Amino acid sequence: MHFNDGLAQLAPLSIAIPIVVACVMLSIGQRAPRVVVDTVAVAGATTVVGLDAALFAGSGGRVINWVANWLPGGGHPVGIVLVVDRIGAGVALLAAILMLLALIYSARYFESADAHFQCLMLLFLAGMNGFALTGDLFDMFVFFELMGAAAYALTGFKVEDRSALQGALNFGIVNSLGAYITLMGIGLMYARTSQLGLAQIGANLDHQRPNALIVVAFIFIMTGWLVKAAAVPFHFWLDDAHAAAPTPVCVLFSGVMVELGLYGVLRVYWTSFAGVIPASDMRRAFIVLGAVTALVGSVMCLAQRHLKRLLAFSTIAHMGLFMCAAGTMDASGTTGAAVYVAGHAGAKCALFLLAGMVLNRYGSVDEAALHGKARDARVPATLFAIASLALAGLPPFATGLGKAIGEDALSADGYWFGPVLFVAVSAMTGGAALRAGGRIFLGLGPRPRQTEDSAAEEETPETTQRFGRRSASLVGPIIALIAGCLALGLAPSSIHAIGGGATRLIDHAGYLAETLRHAHPTVAHDPTAIDWTTTGVVLGLVSALLAVGVAATGWYAEAVRRRLRSVLAPFQRGLSGMRALHSGHVGDYVAWLMVGVVVLGALVGLPLR
Amino acid sequence: MSRRVRMWMVAIAGAAVAVGMGLAFVDLPSFGGSHHPYRDAAIHGSVAHQTANAVSAVNFDQRGLDTFGEESILFASIIGVSALLRPSKEEQEAGPSQPGRVMEATRILGYAFIPLVLIVGLDVISHGVITPGGGFQGGIILASGIHLLYVAGSYETLGRLRPVRLFEHGEAIGAGAFACLGIAGAATAMGFLANLIPLGSFGQLFSAGTVELLNGAVGIEVGSGVIVLIAKFLDQAILLGPQKS
Fold first, then answer.
1. CA atoms in the 13 A half-sphere facing the CB of A119
2. Residue among A243, A124, A131, A225 nearest A182 (CA)
3. CA distance linking residue A380 with residue A261, whole number of Å
4. Is residue B234 pLDDT above 90, yes or no?
């Protein structure tokens, strides 16, 4: 155990250093040449990668830092505690790595705008790190808001683009509303327990009866995190924000920010509420929400032609799968979700960066308008195909491994539909990406007709010059992402650390004992076995094959579809209805958010009566 | 969705949320009780660190990391506003329109109040450890004092006497100083944001150790930041117009 020692002091540094670097960049930004600003930004992100990696490597137990040395002693604790375990350090490390790659990729973006872009990116990183490493509920909210403030501005960064402003506003309003509801929940919890620390609240609530106050406070706190996690029906902001945001920013949104929402839910539930709200109750809520999210996300994903929106809906679909896996409420399911998140970050972020390259070269991200335009781009085409298949869960990519562990955990708990759902969602999202890639890079199938409801959105360029096709700063990060996804899947033994982390994440009693009573770690190292199984490999291959089938249907089945028009009509109407719900009207999104709070309350609260 | 459907959804869901909140409120500890463990512990800690203003002790000492996060939110928001309000290609500087007439009374009172408000601002920041107030509050007062120049004088006077670049540096220095004080604590093995300089004696102007310094850093950051923030909005409202083709 590391208790306020040297390693523990690294945790606050990984929050403070990106902020210091942002201050330096703001000061030198107007005078210094662009290359200096970029170098400082990349150096800052690299330092954070190092700090988070050290925390990840050292957090076999928990790394505990009572900030400013306000130790709990015997009395009532007043200080803030950072509690770092493998999962917390892991998401922080993921955020830092993605930030580093995004900064390298965007080294020549936004020529004119001082160093504002890089400053906001590093502050965004500080927010994500703080959220992942803290063991204090109110501190989580503070860093959640820091993440938000930077993210809203980054979303609207293309000021020439009116839809960017719209996307940023929708994102800002819906997320802020969620955050305020969370804050109300924190207030209720503080009134009840006189505590803000996760462990302190947990100790106070243990063995209590779940009364209305506790349940309502829990639902409210969950709301903000679930808005960030884009769980249906809190998800509406996500595709607007991704469509508007510059592609390097989408990398951070899809790769780690949304996943941090789920991390927040799990962290707060397991640490503070696991002693009062039974896991079986949460399992029901998680699996219902997760399955609905996965289905809505993948159907909407298939229906998109705007490449960034397509990838954004695929993120929603995958969030649904992560929620289902973690929703088993056991170590193996949580391990599956964590591995899946890491693998998904590699595949999805590579696809976003490729979309950014396409936008830079051809000035559009519309699948139909780009039909056959990029036939000469062989390297991007190959990478796009590989990343799409990885998204579909093709072994030996880590996406396939995470998917397999999740499927196993669900069927072991008696959810027979788990594997079906995972395979279907993987095939639909991977297939949609393949379909778009095949059209853009190979010109497969007839050119899709312009239809009214899929009219292309205007896309403002993010760059002032056209980059070379094999520019290392563009292709390098993409290859690194795909290679990372592959390496993680090929070396399951080296990532059994994640299994140990999952065991600790869900270890309520151990967290409280180590944090509040400095007890030595209680849980023996029993990381869930992470390895490929025959079933896992077969189901991974099946979903990759089905994905190719889905793509081929998209390319060639226009004629078939026309013949089957009468049979397909009800589905078409359903799809149009679902599309209409994603209206872009922020009032609709707020209405759905309120409905979501009630649904969540009913799912969690009613069975407890 | 139509407006009607949307309103019904909000109304029904809002009513259900209200019922839930009502049930939760019933379970709250009753109002005016004497059982406040956090308050008691916080005041105990505040006295132990020679900090007469217990609110400052919570903000800058006991829960300094929260304040660090919060001032970073302000910092990020101001950079965000600067980035979003940067002149786009379709906008150009139109120059300020003819200044409106300022009443004599406004002018005299405005100029008279500038030094007064600035002194109050400095006072609120510097006494943050012993009396109510501190860096956040004082910083806002300082920034509003400077904008009396705009109310009493004109946009041009303000522009001449308020170099925005300088305040951008001030903002960065304030936020950076807070972070560096925190890192200094970690470097001395006392812990991040630890109170590592002599605490002085209770109720004195220079007491409470690093609380005083962190307070000052936040004062610089908030004062400069709000000046930059208002400058960006004023530029957008007064100077920039759509491009004339």
1. 33
2. A225
3. 31
4. no
Could you tell me how many CB contacts below 8 A there are between chain A and chain B?
Answer: 233
Chain B residues touching A157 at Cβ < 8 A: 83-84
Say if CB A199 and CB A135 are below 8 A apart: yes
Residues of A in contact with B86 (CB under 8 A): 112-113, 116, 159
- With respect to residue A92, please indicate whether it lies within any of the assigned structural domains: no
What interhelical angle do A398-412 and A378-391 show, nearest 10? 10
Strands A2-3 and A63-66: parallel
By CA distance, what is B60's nearest residue in A?
Answer: A68
Q: Strands B91-93, A81-84: parallel, antiparallel or unpaired by DSSP?
A: unpaired
Instruction: State the nearest Cα–Cα gap between A406 and chain B, in angstroms.
Output: 34
Q: Which residues of B touch A590 (CB under 8 A)?
A: 10
Question: Nearest CA to CA, how far is B60 from chain A (Å)?
Answer: 10
What amino acid is encoded at A284 in this protein? Answer: R
The pTM for the full model equals 0.95
Quick check: A139 and B65 CB within 8 A?
yes
Query: What is the tally of structural domains in chain A?
Result: 1
* Distance (Å, whole) CA A362 – CA A574: 33
DSSP H helical ranges for A237-329: 237-244, 247-252, 258-268, 279-302, 307-326
Of the candidates A115, A498, A41, A505, the residue with the CA atom closest to the CA atom of residue A274:
A505
Answer yes or no: do A68 and B17 touch at CB < 8 A. Answer: no
CB contact under 8 A, A23 and B173: yes
The per-residue pLDDT for A455 is 45
Subunit contact A143:B69, Cβ cutoff 8 A: yes
Q: Are strands A63-66 and B91-93 parallel, antiparallel or unpaired?
A: unpaired
Three-state helix/strand/coil letters over B115-145: HHHHHHHHHHHHCCCCCCCCHHHHHHHHHHH
Is residue A512 scored above 50 in pLDDT?
yes
**Cβ neighbours of residue B226 closer than 8 Å, sequence gap 6 or more:** B78, B139, B140, B143, B144
A514 domain residue, yes or no: yes
A503 lies in which domain range?
299-449+466-556
Q: What integer pLDDT is reported at residue A557 of this predicted model?
A: 80
A355-367 CB burial, b ≥16 within 10 A, e <16: bbbbbbbbebbbb
CB contact under 8 A, A146 and B40: no
A461 with A336: CB under 8 angstroms? no
Residue A520 domain-assigned (yes or no): yes
Per residue in A186-195, pLDDT (tens digit) is: 999 999 999 9
Q: Strand A81-84 to strand B240-242: parallel, antiparallel, or no bridges (unpaired)? A: unpaired
Label residue A113 by pLDDT band (50, 70, 90): low
B-chain residues near A221 (CB < 8 A): none
CA distances from A54 to A9, A121, B190 (A): 11, 22, 20
The shortest C-alpha distance from B101 to chain A (Å) reads 34
Handedness of CA B132, B137, B143, B148 (dihedral sign): negative
* Residue entry with tokens 């604590």: B185
> Which residues on A lie below 8 Å from B192 (Cβ)?
9, 12-13, 16, 65, 67-68
Greatest distance between any 2 Cα atoms in chain B: 70
Nearest by CB: A594 against B14, B65, B68: B14
Q: Per the CB < 8 Å rule, is B176 touching A195?
A: no
To the nearest whole angstrom, how far is the Cα of A472 from the nearest Cα of chain B? 28
Residue A468 has pLDDT above 70, yes or no: no
Nearest-neighbour CA in chain A from B222: distance (Å): 14
| Cα A143 from Cα B66, distance rounded (Å) | 8
**Could you give the 3-state DSSP secondary structure of residue B30?**
coil
